[in-house]
Amino acid sequence: MANSLKFNETIINVGDTIRVSYAFNEKGKEKTQDFEGIVLRIRGMGVGKSFTVRRMTRSKIGVERIFPVLSPFIKAITIMRKSKTRKAGARFIRNKSDKEIRERLYT
Fold first, then answer.
1. What pLDDT score does 67 carry?
2. Which residue range(s) make up the domain with 19?
3. Is 38 in contact with 17 (CB distance < 8 Å)?
4. What is the DSSP letter of 105?
5. The domain that contains 44 carries what CATH number?
6. What does the DSSP assignment read for 36-97?
7. d(C-alpha 90, C-alpha 96), whole Å
8. What is the pTM (predicted TM-score) of this model?
9. Is residue 98 part of a domain?
10. pLDDT in tens, 10-25
11. Of 55, 77, 83, 107, which residue is 20 to 30 A from 100 by alpha carbon distance?
């Protein structure tokens, strides 16, 4: 299992809070949208490498999205907050509250 990935000279680790800006076409116009959340896991190698990002909505519902690393639709990835986790996957946060996640990942 991979613990990190490299995207345009940016090294992203499992547990980091990132913002993914991706583009899509809607009615002939190209729009960009941001998805900000915690990286749960990084899997695969080479062309098939992908990463899963989880965020909480305003109504406290968890939303996960899988992004392929080599997708032409990803415009930018920015790291909002680095974590101190040593695990290969942060899937354990699915059953935790926001406070428990902050305590576990960032302290």
1. 93
2. 4-93
3. yes
4. H
5. 2.30.30.790
6. EEEEEEEE--GGG-EEEEEEE-TTS-EEEEEEETT-TTEEEEEEEE------S--GGGGGS-
7. 11
8. 0.81
9. no
10. 888 888 899 999 998 8
11. 77
